[in-house]
Amino acid sequence: MKFKHINMLGLAMAAVLVVGCGSDEADTATTDATLGTDASTSGINDGSLSGSQFGSGNNSASRLGPEFSDPNNPLSKQTIYFELDSSQVKQEYVPVVAAHANYLASHPSQRVILAGNADERGSSEYNIALGEQRAKAVERMMRTQGVNASQLEIVSYGEEKPAVAGHNESAWSMNRRVEVGYQ
């Protein structure tokens, strides 16, 4: 029993380190090893960042240009939603990611945080890894469109910062997301 707790603590620490170390290939290897485990622990949250930093765009949009407030402009959408257990960007969000990538490529001093999230199903470790994979999927798309890596930061909150409270598909679908937070 004690060994199991130490093992779980080790997995949780590894997940926190992966999230805190940014995005490089070593992180991917660690994440892939963690993804798929069915261990359950809770409390992976250092509390150093708040969800309001990565809000759904209205707070950060006020500091940005009018195109971010125009509902007809894809820049006004700062949340990319995902299917269950998937880190593939849905086709309907490709133009949104492209618009943010174009904006960032033309504003090289602008930085964003890509905050990956997951719904409450699955273990904490799995959800941290899945949130990171979702953020990395958006990062890869942006990088292929000319965004400099120094403009992008990745964090994963897993299930710790749900956008919607609830225990049904409607709430879960809103919590499977990456938020594009302009700094």
The percentage of residues in β strands lies in 5-15%
Helicity level, as a percent range? 40-55%
Q: Note the total helix count.
A: 6
- Label the overall shape: globular
Strand tally, please? Answer: 4
Largest sheet: 4 strands, mixed
Provide the succession of SSEs.
HHHEHEHEHE
Radius of gyration, whole Å: 16 Å
Q: Give the uncertain stretches in residue-range form.
A: 1-59
Neighbour order of strands in the largest sheet: 1-4-2-3
Mean pLDDT: 78
Judged by helices, strands and strand pairing, the structural class is alpha+beta
Beginning-to-end CA distance, first to last residue: 44 Å
Entry summary:
The protein has 183 residues and is of the alpha+beta class. Helix content is 40%, strand content 12%.
Protein traits:
single chain; about 180 residues; alpha+beta; four-stranded mixed sheet; 6 helices; 4 strands; about 40% helix; disordered N terminus
